[in-house]
Amino acid sequence: MPRDIDNTALLEELRRDRQEPDEPAGSRRGWWIAGAILLVVASAAGAALYQQRGKATPVELSTAAPPSSNAGSTAVLQATGYVTARRAATVSAQITGTLTQVLIEEGVHVQAGQVLARLDDTAARASLAQSVAQLNAAQALLAQYQAQLEQSRRDVRRDEELVGDAVSQQTLEAARTQVQTQTAQVESQRRQVELGRASVQAAEVQLAYTVIKAPFSGVITAKAAQPGEIVSPMSAGGGFTRTGVGTIVDMDSLEIEVDVNEAYIHRVRADQPAQALLDAYPDWNIPAHVIAIVPTADRSKATVKVRVATDEKDPRILPDMGVRVSFLDQPAKTAANTTAAKGVLVPASAIVQRDGKTVVFTVDGERARLQPVALGQAFGDLRLVEGISPGARVVRGPVSKLRDGGRVIATKP
Fold first, then answer.
1. So what CATH class is 88-120+210-249?
2. Nearest to 279 by CA among 193, 198, 344, 205
């Protein structure tokens, strides 16, 4: 029985709750609408944040390098550039033809005059044979004319001895005229023989053009054609004709080209000692010197091009490698110069402010990492900073939306 009493009491409570005045219907509908709007806004913000995190930001990278030192010299300026080859050539045929052999591969060393490829020489050989035959015919005809001329000269000598007795003056004059005519005929035929020889030489040159040779010693850096393809010294349009067989680079002609801000070009001079640092080998300092300052400025970038030569050759130095050059000068002999600078050099554009801190963004895989740094001395468009290691890849001019952990993709400068 007590159980029945409890159930009855509970039912009574429920009736009282139902009899309590409900909230107005409009108020409950407003709360539902507000909740739905908040849910939509939160979903959109979450989707935008997810999309932003999943989208890679294109960035330009640079390599942090230690400040250079060189036996009592200090860097008065630093600039970035690329390794270039002063002697490089895309080798092509001098005539249009079909390749029958391509004897090169990338990375192969070749010598000057070495055969790189051959063209179909059927037509060239036929043309040479025709020219040789024409020359032989012209030489045979010349021999015939020369024999006739000799006979006519003998006849004139006999007529001159018999003139007045057995030979008339008219006959003698006719014989002399014939000698003059045949002399001109022989001279004309000699010219035909010379023309035949020239035709043979031209045909031999055309035949030689079917053999493509290396113009100088170097390394093959690109193979651009295969046997069976047509090559031509000029583009024929349509994309079916190759204009080159391969590219040769003379590795002994490698040098460095850097762009120096025109505001600092007064710090550079010809034959000035320098030090090069490849992005690929950030711990390898290469002694170098300035070859020349190109006497013109780039109006769009406000820079002047400087040519720099390395003092040592090494197979690790390759064309188009990124490089940083430190231009050196003799320092004053003070105690301050004996202390090595601490930190690494990065482009000034890589240093930004985030939440009141001076930071740079380094790249770890596909993610950007925010690194606080302490600023040091400025070297032209570079700045000495402490807080990151040599060889670290830093983002040049990071955009404001870039955050720690954001995905990035490197673009070539």
1. mainly beta
2. 344
pLDDT tens digit string along 171-192? 888 989 999 999 999 999 999 9
Beta bridge partners of 223: 246
Domain 57-62+341-411 bears CATH identifier 2.40.420.20 = yes
pTM metric for this prediction: 0.56
- Secondary structure of the chain in the HEC alphabet? CHHHHHHHHHHHHHHHHHHCCCCCHHHHHHHHHHHHHHHHHHHHHHHHHHHHHHCCEEEEEEECECCCCECCEEEEEEEEEEEEECCEEEECCCCCEEEEEECCCCCCEECCCCEEEEECCHHHHHHHHHHHHHHHHHHHHHHHHHHHHHHHHHHHHHHHHHECCCECHHHHHHHHHHHHHHHHHHHHHHHHHHHHHHHHHHHHHHHHCCEEECCCCEEEEEECCCCCCEECCCCCCCCCEECCCEEEECHHHEEEEEEEECCCHHHCCCCCEEEEEECCCCCCEEEEEEEEEEEEEECCCCEEEEEEEECCCCCCCCCCCEEEEEEEECCCCCHHHHCCCCCEEEEHHHCEEECCEEEEEEEECCEEEEEECEEEEEECCEEEEECCCCCCEEEECCCCCCCCCCEEEEECC
More confident residue, 150 or 54: 150
pLDDT at 261: 92
Region of poorest pLDDT, from 59-68, 110-119, 335-344, 389-398: 335-344
Parse the chain into domains and list their residue ranges: 57-62+341-411, 73-86+253-330, 88-120+210-249, 124-205
Which CATH fold would you assign to the domain 73-86+253-330?
Answer: Elongation Factor Tu (Ef-tu); domain 3 (2.40.30)
CA separation for the pair 226, 97 (Å, rounded): 13
